[in-house]
Design brief:
- The chain is of the alpha/beta class.
- It contains twelve helices and 15 strands.
- Helix content is 33%, strand content 22%.
- Strand 13 and strand 14 form a beta hairpin.
- Helix 7 runs parallel beside helix 10.
């Protein structure tokens, strides 16, 4: 987590007045260049002595409450992921829409997907506000505040299998591909796809583009799991929709058991590990982003393996994003991050009710191996 100094926000309009730097220097004895850096949020560190002098000045001259001043003066810096999405001139959220069996012709989205979308919008708006309030705002940042657009893409049918994806499957794929082709070269754009490939076909296309795969292609019989070209694998439940996918299926590899449903990821030595989806003990989610600097374009895909995991991902989103760290792959053309999130539930978790157990799980953010990702991207970006 990064911290920003909010001195200019505390001072309000006075921060931009002529003579404010001189006034603070005269009142506190802090050097002029330090005061200027504090006002512009450019300091790398601040001594306790400087902090004490600044607190005294703000309390005496501006009526600040000393007891809460430190918390007011420092605030978490928006994470890079939020900054990228906040800067997008076009921002589109895409969710998978399922067909209702009770009402013919009607569509619905999962409440947890909507919950995650709302939480992301809140974090993006917070990043925009923080950017707009800084005295050193980037050129044009104030104008880049478009209202996000929203898109629903048809999800695979409930009983979809690779051998029988259903009559609507070609149209479902074409709809997603048409949307993606219309947006993949947009500049200063952000596209966020929520859900796994079993409910959101746009996620499949994002993985396929990043790792040079053929989307919607079923191949579930790899002799060696390490020969898979995507370092992430969604092992569907037997009752899940099982669309033809470049990153999902039932068999990870002939040499690597994947009996339990969940999200599997490749490790540095080429072996695979997994986070199982078990209603009593654990659940899994994922977060993927690809930022392309030449286009100033960002793609983000995230969601839970189950609705329960999506619910907890929304609840713990700030913690998860703060733990991401640097992208696992970075070049002049591409920055890519790929993470698996493990939720470990307390013993005795109750799964019998209509709502999820309210006891907070332990959250572990697992970066997919830098070596595994680089092996697939080296020489291409």
């Amino acid at each position: 987590m990064k911290l920003s100094v909010r001195l200019s926000e505390i001072l309000g309009p006075k921060a931009a007045q002529r003579g404010i730097v001189h006034e603070i220097c005269h009142a506190t004895g802090i050097e002029r260049h330090t005061v200027a850096a504090l006002l512009r949020n450019r300091v790398k560190y601040i001594s306790l002595d400087t902090l004490a002098r600044l607190a005294t000045y703000l309390a005496e001259k501006h009526g600040a409450d000393v007891r809460s001043l430190v918390g007011t003066l420092f605030a978490p810096e928006p994470e890079e992921l939020w900054d990228v999405l906040a800067d997008a001139q076009q921002l589109t959220f895409c969710l998978g829409a399922r067909m209702s069996r009770e009402w013919a012709g009607s569509e619905y989205v999962m409440s947890t997907d909507a919950q995650l979308q709302g939480k992301m919008l809140s974090q993006i708006a917070r990043a925009q506000l923080a950017d707009g309030s800084r005295s050193t705002r980037r050129e044009g940042a104030a104008e880049r505040r478009p209202f996000p657009s929203f898109c629903l893409l048809r999800a695979p049918m409930r009983r979809t299998t690779p051998q029988d994806p259903g009559e609507a499957w070609p149209a479902i794929c074409r709809e997603a591909q048409d949307f993606y082709e219309a947006h993949r070269d947009d500049r200063h754009a952000g596209v966020v796809a929520l859900g796994s490939p079993k409910v959101n076909t746009l996620v499949e296309l994002m993985f396929a583009r990043a790792f040079s795969l053929t989307p919607f292609q079923f191949r579930d019989r790899w002799a060696r799991a390490r020969d898979r070209r995507c370092p992430l694998f969604f092992r569907w439940r037997d009752t899940d929709p099982q669309p033809p996918s470049c990153c999902g299926g039932l068999v990870l590899g002939d040499d690597t058991p994947s009996v339990a449903p969940g999200i599997y990821y490749e490790t540095a030595d080429g072996s695979w590990a997994g986070v199982e989806c078990d209603p009593h003990t654990s659940d899994a989610a994922f977060l993927f982003y690809a930022y392309r600097p030449p286009l100033a374009q960002a793609e983000v895909a995230c969601g839970g393996f189950s609705s329960c995991a999506t619910h907890w991902m929304a609840n713990e989103l700030e913690t998860i994003v703060a733990a991401l760290g640097e992208p696992q792959y970075a070049s002049g053309k591409l920055k890519l991050g790929l993470y698996v999130i493990r939720f470990t539930f307390p013993p005795g978790r109750d799964t019998t009710g209509s709502t999820w157990d309210a006891r907070k799980p332990r959250v572990d953010v697992i970066p997919v191996s830098r070596k595994a990702i680089t092996r697939r991207l080296k020489g291409r970006s």
